[in-house]
Design goal:
- By secondary structure, this protein is mainly alpha-helical.
- Helix content is 58%, strand content 7%.
- The chain folds into two domains: 42 residues, no CATH class; 36 residues.
- The protein has a two-stranded antiparallel ribbon with strand order 1-2.
């Protein structure tokens, strides 16, 4: 949701109109939290997750699980030495 007061929304509307006509519009008002508006010719590309990123993610998860298992085994050995 975009929120703003009447003045800020009016500035944004004018910038959008200018960007639709000329392709881009920069906003020079200091109190506004955005710098400008740009009209794109096409939809932005949708990021696609590659096969390798899934494999690497699962590999990291397996590695973390293995490290946690080693930690638990070490903790059990220490507990066994203490409580003998």
């Amino acid at each position: 949701m975009l929120e703003g007061n009447r003045e800020g929304l009016t500035i944004l509307r004018d910038a959008i109109d200018h960007a639709l006509e000329h392709g881009e519009s920069m906003i020079g008002v200091e109190d506004v939290e955005f710098a400008g508006v740009r009209a794109l010719a096409a939809k932005p590309p949708v990021p696609v997750e590659s096969k390798w990123s899934k494999i690497i993610g699962r590999g990291c998860l397996i590695l973390v699980a293995f490290c946690f298992l080693i930690f638990l085994v070490g903790l059990a050995r220490i507990a066994a030495l203490i409580f003998e």
